């Protein structure tokens, strides 16, 4: 079996004993790397003022070597905050209005990808299989090919791929498409994303979609596919059962005082539809006054990418909005929305999911959304809660037993909350069992195996 080399912007180092366990993606990638032996390369998360690159920080644990690189402050500004998160992220989430295209940032993005390639190339052996993750690193294969590497290289995009007209609004879309054509396998989260990609190639007249999801463009033929990322379902379910008795979860249980709990968990990101969701909760209370003082909505929202202006501004908007709704519908003994603006450790999160009668997952657009899957896996099989899920999350393609909503339809989401809270136990069980069966088969290991199998045969 060939050695595996994983490259991603962020790298999850093995957890110290006693730490909260890492998410499913890290666990699955670590397992695949451990089995085959391999390297996981990425950004250390640190930036330095010095122009001279420090040597790679190499750490070996078992069969895996982690290779971490620092970036300069300018690199982080232009590549991560700039092009990746102010151009590619909004464009891929269909938000043309928020894309801030600048040549300096675009140049920084390509420069950092070349830098990654220069650092990675000396570590690569002839028959290594390379797996690159996400929108930060699209041009990496092109850089490696230019250096003469002939290895199998696969790419997985964790975020959506937009339809042609949205993509074409990005001035360098052709360079990005050309970058993708240098991989042997390009994986998307859903069939819809894959179709958007094929549609873009054909509309631009730069490529063809061939039989068997193959694409031909820029003189290369490569494979496309869709692989919906998942979680470690059975482990997460066991973990949530245990977490229900975690001290913090117990306190949370006492503090809701028998009210129904509604939970939302999202990075503070405009793609997650948090403001529309708060409006929907407000509407729900207004339309159903009998629920006053009978329900608590807990919104856990860690800060994210705060250096990017659109994110910084959102921090104020959401905090003000939650305060406004609490002020208008709350009473002296009831705070309807508990807004937590910090990250919560996974053991606590798992227990809170299990405590909640409704999981409210209403992004305006999302590659997959692992929170939706974690919420389901955490439920008590004898008394499962209801998932209210946006039809625009990748997860909606699989989780058809959820109450699917259009997050732009505030009243529709408010009705779904009311329906979730009054749903019979029989219906809740029926819907939940159907989705859990699916999640047990299509778990994170299956996702990893499917991608690597297709890459091997690409
Ligand atoms: O690294 P950050 O800038 O702090 O952002 C965190 C991650 O956000 C994105 O997550 C996506 O991947 C999930 C797993 O496939 C998927 O469920 C979700 O829908 C996506 O939004 C991003 O793609 C990651 O690279 C970031 O590390
Ligand atoms: O306070 C928090 C909030 C989120 N998460 C985790 O962050 C991930 C979020 O993944 P998702 O696919 O839902 O969205 P993303 O943030 O990757 O866009 C999930 O595994 C959550 O359990 C966490 O550990 N603590």
TrEMBL record:
InterPro entries: Glyco_trans_20, Trehalose_OtsA. CDD domains: GT20_TPS (cd03788). Its EC number is 2.4.1.15. Keywords: Glycosyltransferase, Transferase. The keyword Cytoplasm does not apply. It catalyses: D-glucose 6-phosphate + UDP-alpha-D-glucose = alpha,alpha-trehalose 6-phosphate + UDP + H(+). Coiled coil: none annotated. One of its GO terms (molecular function) is alpha,alpha-trehalose-phosphate synthase (UDP-forming) activity. Pfam families: Glyco_transf_20. Gene3D superfamilies: Glycogen Phosphorylase B. Pathway: Glycan biosynthesis; trehalose biosynthesis. It comes from the Bacteria. Belongs to the glycosyltransferase 20 family. PANTHER family: BCDNA.GH08860 (PTHR10788:SF106), TREHALOSE-6-PHOSPHATE SYNTHASE (PTHR10788). Probably involved in the osmoprotection via the biosynthesis of trehalose. Catalyzes the transfer of glucose from UDP-alpha-D-glucose (UDP-Glc) to D-glucose 6-phosphate (Glc-6-P) to form trehalose-6-phosphate. Acts with retention of the anomeric configuration of the UDP-sugar donor. Homotetramer. This is Trehalose-6-phosphate synthase. It comes from Neorhizobium turbinariae.
């Amino acid at each position: 079996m060939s050695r595996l080399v994983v490259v991603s912007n962020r790298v999850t180092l093995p957890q110290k004993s006693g730490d909260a366990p890492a998410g499913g993606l890290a666990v699955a990638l670590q397992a695949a790397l451990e089995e085959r032996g391999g390297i996981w390369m990425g950004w250390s998360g640190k930036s330095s003022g010095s122009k001279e690159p420090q040597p790679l920080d190499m750490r070996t644990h078992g069969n895996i070597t982690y290779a971490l690189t620092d970036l300069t402050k300018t690199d982080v500004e232009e590549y991560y905050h700039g092009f990746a998160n102010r151009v590619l992220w909004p464009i891929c989430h269909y938000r043309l209005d928020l894309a801030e295209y600048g040549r300096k940032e675009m140049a920084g993005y390509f420069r950092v990808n070349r830098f990654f390639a220069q650092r990675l190339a000396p570590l690569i052996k002839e028959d290594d299989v390379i797996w690159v993750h996400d929108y930060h690193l699209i041009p990496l294969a092109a850089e490696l090919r230019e250096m003469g590497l002939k290895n199998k290289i696969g790419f997985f995009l964790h975020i959506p791929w937009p339809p042609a007209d949205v993509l074409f609004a990005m001035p360098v879309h052709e360079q990005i498409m050309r970058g993708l054509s240098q991989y042997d396998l390009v994986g998307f989260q859903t069939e819809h994303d894959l179709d958007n990609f094929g549609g873009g190639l054909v509309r631009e007249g730069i490529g063809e979609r061939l039989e068997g999801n193959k694409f031909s463009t820029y003189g290369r033929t490569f494979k496309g596919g869709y692989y919906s990322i998942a979680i470690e379902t059975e482990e997460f379910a066991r973990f949530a059962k245990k977490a229900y008795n975690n001290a913090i979860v117990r306190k949370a249980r006492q503090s809701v005082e028998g009210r129904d709990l509604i939970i939302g968990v999202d990075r503070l990101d405009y793609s997650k539809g948090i403001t529309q969701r708060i409006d929907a909760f407000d509407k729900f209370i207004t339309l159903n006054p009998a629920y006053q003082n009978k329900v608590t909505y807990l919104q856990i929202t860690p800060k994210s990418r705060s250096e990017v202006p659109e994110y910084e501004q959102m921090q104020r908007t959401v905090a003000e909005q939650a305060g406004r709704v609490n002020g208008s519908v709350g009473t002296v003994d009831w705070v309807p929305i508990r807004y937590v603006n910090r990250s919560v450790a996974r053991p606590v999160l798992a227990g809170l999911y299990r405590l909640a009668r409704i999981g409210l997952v209403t992004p305006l657009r999302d590659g997959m959304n692992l929170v939706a899957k974690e919420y389901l896996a955490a439920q008590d099989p004898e008394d499962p809660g209801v998932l209210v899920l946006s039809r625009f999350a990748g997860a909606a393609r699989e989780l058809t037993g959820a109450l699917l909503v259009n997050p732009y339809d505030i009243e529709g989401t408010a009705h779904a909350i009311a329906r979730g809270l009054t749903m019979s136990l029989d219906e809740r069980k029926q819907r939940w069992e159907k989705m859990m069966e699916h999640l047990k088969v299509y778990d994170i290991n299956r996702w990893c195996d499917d991608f690597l199998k297709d890459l091997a045969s690409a």
